[in-house]
Amino acid sequence: MQDAKGPDQFFQHALANGEISLPMCEDCGAYHFFPRVLCPHCYGAAISWRQSSGKGRVYTTTVVRRKPEHGGDYNVCMVELDEGVRMMSRVEGIAPGEVAIDMAVTAFVGEAEGVPVVLFKPSEG
């Protein structure tokens, strides 16, 4: 069921509790991301929240170049989760240039500028 706080706040509240939840339409069964009050597939309003498997693959990737004194290079990527949604984030734990398209990754709740965010790491195995 949709929380009275709204979809963005519901998603952020789940992240603050260490969970990655995705909105799913009860009418058509499709997941969607970013959080919205209506399903972008069928325009249904019966939205529930399900915990994500966290498994996905890098759909596209790039390296943002910065001077070392400004934090150095970092990766920005689009990950397609097993639930069928795409999420922009970054892959942590490896050099930015080593992130590759179709790389298997696993989501986790990390932190950026003091706020919980969805990050990814290379999947083991």
Can you put this structure into words, describing what you see?
The structure is a single chain. The protein is mainly beta and 125 residues long. It has two domains: 45 residues, no CATH class; 68 residues, OB fold (Dihydrolipoamide Acetyltransferase, E2P) (Beta Barrel), CATH 2.40.50. It has a five-stranded antiparallel sheet. The N and C termini lie far apart (36 Å). 18% of the residues are buried.
Total domains? 2
Strand order of the largest sheet: 5-4-3-6-7
- By CATH, the topology of the largest domain is OB fold (Dihydrolipoamide Acetyltransferase, E2P)
Helix-strand pattern: HEEEEEEE
CATH class category label of the largest domain: Mainly Beta
Query: What does the overall shape look like?
Result: globular
Q: Could you name the ranges where pLDDT drops below 50 across 5 or more consecutive residues?
A: none
Tally of individual helices: 1
Main sheet properties: 5 strands, antiparallel
- Range of helix content: under 10%
Radius of gyration using CA atoms only = 16 Å
Structural class, judged by helices and strands? mainly beta
Assembly form of the protein? single chain
Note the beta-strand portion. Answer: 35-45%
Give the overall average pLDDT. 93
For the record, the CATH architecture of the largest domain stands as Beta Barrel
> Could you tell me how far the N terminus lies from the C terminus, measured between alpha carbons in angstroms?
36 Å
Count of β-strands: 7
